[in-house]
Write a structure and sequence with these properties.
Elements (H helix, E strand, L loop, with lengths): L1 H27 L1 E4 L8 E4 L5 E8 L7 E5 L10 E2 L1 E9 L2 E7 L7 E4 L1 E5 L17 E6 L13 E5 L4 E4 L15 E5 L2 E2 L7 E4 L3 E7 L14 E6 L7 E3 L12 E5 L4 E6 L2 E2 L7 E4 L3 E8 L4 E8 L6 E3 L5 E3 L5 E7 L4 E7 L2 E2 L7 E4 L3 E9 L5 E11 L10 E3 L19 E6 L4 E6 L18 E8 L2 E10 L1
Parallel strand pairs: 2-10, 11-17, 26-32, 33-37
Antiparallel strand pairs: 1-3, 3-7, 4-5, 4-9, 6-7, 8-10, 12-15, 13-14, 13-16, 16-17, 18-19, 19-22, 20-21, 20-23, 23-24, 25-27, 27-30, 28-29, 28-31, 31-32, 34-35, 34-36, 36-37
Length: 477
């Protein structure tokens, strides 16, 4: 009895030791981060993007790799951001330094965190910066230079009762084309709250300038010239009128925008200068926010209009370049909010008779187009074009019969011949050349065929990179 108890005891002891060893082995892998790089923040840019993360590690199997991860811009590691590994340096058998770069599309934030993750799935605690914080600023500065506002002029005059728009110049050097950049605007060296776009509407005198907003990675060198805005008793506010009203019905040359009379004009659409638009009037068919800066000869003022079109919206679910299998059909549908919409469907620029609905069943390849028209209210139309390809089959198979009453009344050659390097020639039985084109798209014949008493026969020549093919084509009704 004592022997049995002793054996059971040793069995339990062995099992306990095994489980304890397995459990302790699982949790023995440890990564301990050090203060990263002696820095307070990660301020990267095109001129500098190289940082170090040093850490100690124990009980990892040979071949384990490590990477540096950033939290999201809110400081969470639910969906960590991968950094670019530049180099792994073995400091000692239990210590490594990873040299890394932050993503160039990083969304700037002042509360990022950093950690190391192993290929075994173990992660470290958060690194601390030189201030002892686990949260710190991280930015990628896509533009690192000074820039200009107010067309490089350091003075501007505002009209009494009017306003003036100061804008980031688009001419190089300029950050204006970089969409994700935010700005801080200053008046008399005090930041203007709530202003972060590339335009600032000014209605009072003072000294103004802009600075690129990189949070705590901002640099006073990444700022604009200073503009001294003064006032004048002359001039007036600027208004813009639309000849077709607002909203307007887009048609023809569009509506004519007319500004208050002045000496010179600069028109902008959605904050971007419109090249060549320097007259008092500007014609457009496009919706958007239009502004105009008017120089009254002593002072300047700006006006704007949020121009809207009362046309209609439409979309199509066609997949351009879809490859249609033999015997397959697909239905293409138009969705629109047009009032009393009408539809016209075209195959190879030829109107498909009787097809006037918002959908069409396609069974043959070719170049398709649908035209949507709104006939009541604001008369307008839209077009969608798309191409349907098909199985070409063997390159030697070129159709030698065209049936004009069939579903596809055109001579369709294999797709490999439909390119800019292939020439197609068609000759009548009388020796007349009826077609001589490159990049043939399967749209012959386009004219009526004179049948007389026989089915006409034509002869083709296809000259491609792979050689020349010849044959005949019989056209039947």
């Amino acid at each position: 009895m004592i022997q049995k108890i002793t054996l059971s005891f040793f069995k339990l002891l062995f099992l306990f030791s095994f489980l304890f060893f397995a459990k302790s082995n699982t949790y023995a892998q440890t990564i301990v981060p050090q203060t990263f790089d002696g820095l307070e923040k990660l301020c990267a840019g095109n001129s500098f993007n190289e940082f170090n993360a040093t850490f100690s590690y124990i009980d990892f199997p040979a071949g384990t790799t490590f990477v540096v991860e950033l939290s999201d811009s809110a400081g969470n590691f639910t969906t960590p951001i991968a950094t670019t590994l530049l180099q792994t340096i073995d400091v000692s058998p239990t210590q490594k330094t990873i040299r890394y770069a932050v993503p160039t599309n990083l969304v700037g934030s002042d509360i990022y965190s950093l950690r190391v993750k192993s290929s075994t799935g173990v992660t470290s605690t958060r690194f601390r910066n030189s201030l002892g914080n686990t949260s710190f600023p991280a930015y990628f500065k896509t533009y690192e230079s000074s820039f200009f506002i107010n067309n490089k002029s350091d003075v501007a005059m505002i009209c009494s009762g009017g306003s003036l728009t100061l804008s980031i110049n688009s001419e190089a050097p300029s950050p204006a084309a970089i969409s994700n950049i935010k700005y801080k605007w200053y008046k008399d060296d005090v930041v203007i709250s709530g202003q972060s776009s590339k335009d600032l509407v000014v209605n009072s005198t003072g000294k103004y300038y802009a600075e690129i907003d990189y949070g705590q990675c901002s640099d006073v060198n990444f700022s604009s010239n200073r503009v001294n805005v003064t006032s004048s008793s002359g001039g007036s506010g600027v208004t813009i009128s639309s000849s077709l009203g607002n909203p307007f019905c887009a048609s023809g040359t569009g509506t004519v925008l007319t500004a208050t009379s002045g000496n010179s004009y600069v028109w902008k659409k959605d904050g971007t200068v419109i090249t060549g638009a320097t007259n008092r009037t500007y014609s457009t068919n496009e919706s958007g926010v239009y502004t105009v800066d008017v120089d009254f000869g002593g002072c300047k003022a700006s006006g704007s209009i949020n121009l809207q079109s009362n046309g209609f919206d439409a979309s199509i679910d066609a997949e351009d370049g879809y490859k249609l299998s033999e015997g397959e059909t697909i239905t293409v549908t138009v969705t629109t909010d047009a009032t009393a919409a009408s539809y016209e469907w075209y195959l190879n620029d030829n109107l498909i008779s009787g097809e006037t609905g918002n959908s069409y069943v396609i069974s043959v390849k070719g170049n398709y187009k649908v035209k949507i028209s709104q006939a009541s209210g604001c008369t307008a139309n839209k077009e969608f074009a798309f191409r349907i390809n098909g199985d070409s089959g063997p390159s030697s198979v070129v159709p030698n019969i065209i049936k004009l009453s069939g579903m596809n009344p055109y001579w369709n050659i294999p797709d490999e011949y439909k390119n800019a390097s292939t020439k197609v020639i068609i000759i009548s039985s009388n020796g007349d050349k009826v077609l001589d084109v490159v990049n043939y798209q399967g749209d012959w014949p386009q004219n009526n065929i004179d049948f007389k008493n026989v089915n006409p026969v034509y002869y083709y020549v296809i000259q491609s990179d792979t050689g020349e093919k010849k044959g005949s084509i019989t056209v039947i009704k």
